[in-house]
Amino acid sequence: MKALIQRVSQASVSVAGEQISAIGPGMLVLLAVEATDTPASLSKLVHKVAHYRLFGDSNSKMNLNVQQIAGAVLVVSQFTLAADTQNGLRPSFTPAADPAMAEQYYLQFNQQLAGLGIMVQRGRFGADMQVSLTNDGPVTFLLTS
């Protein structure tokens, strides 16, 4: 699994011109599920996302996680992050999980994050979404499990 995480002051998702979710300060997570992922890799990535320290403390050091700032997380499925881009000029999506597995893992990822007491909003799996955000910093990290 891959999660591209961005520290945001706000983020939202719209589908067909209608806003379906939004958060204030927190984290936008673009999530890719790969065919080789397992329940263990899912749990490992949930832990990393929940505890990753990308928010500033009183000394402006990145020492706080999303829970410690009482922030929210907006999770958007993005299978294109699973692409193999090593060869040629067109991505190969062979590493990506099939849609049924990807949706199941996406939903479980959201449930596990929420189970940690984090306020979770989400996109719509498989939809053509418009994602709006204000990247705070900018701060962006690619996490893998």
TrEMBL record:
Its main location: cytoplasm. A motif (Gly-cisPro motif, important for rejection of L-amino acids) lies at residues 137-138. One of its GO terms (molecular function) is Ser(Gly)-tRNA(Ala) hydrolase activity. It catalyses: glycyl-tRNA(Ala) + H2O = tRNA(Ala) + glycine + H(+); a D-aminoacyl-tRNA + H2O = a tRNA + a D-alpha-amino acid + H(+). It comes from the Bacteria. Its EC number is 3.1.1.96, 3.1.1.-. GO terms for biological process: D-amino acid catabolic process. The keyword Cytoplasm applies. Signal peptide: none annotated. Keywords: Cytoplasm, Hydrolase, RNA-binding, tRNA-binding. It is found in: Cytoplasm. Belongs to the DTD family. An aminoacyl-tRNA editing enzyme that deacylates mischarged D-aminoacyl-tRNAs. Also deacylates mischarged glycyl-tRNA(Ala), protecting cells against glycine mischarging by AlaRS. Acts via tRNA-based rather than protein-based catalysis; rejects L-amino acids rather than detecting D-amino acids in the active site. By recycling D-aminoacyl-tRNA to D-amino acids and free tRNA molecules, this enzyme counteracts the toxicity associated with the formation of D-aminoacyl-tRNA entities in vivo and helps enforce protein L-homochirality. Homodimer. This is D-aminoacyl-tRNA deacylase. It comes from Arsukibacterium ikkense. The lineage of its organism: Bacteria, Pseudomonadati, Pseudomonadota, Gammaproteobacteria, Chromatiales.
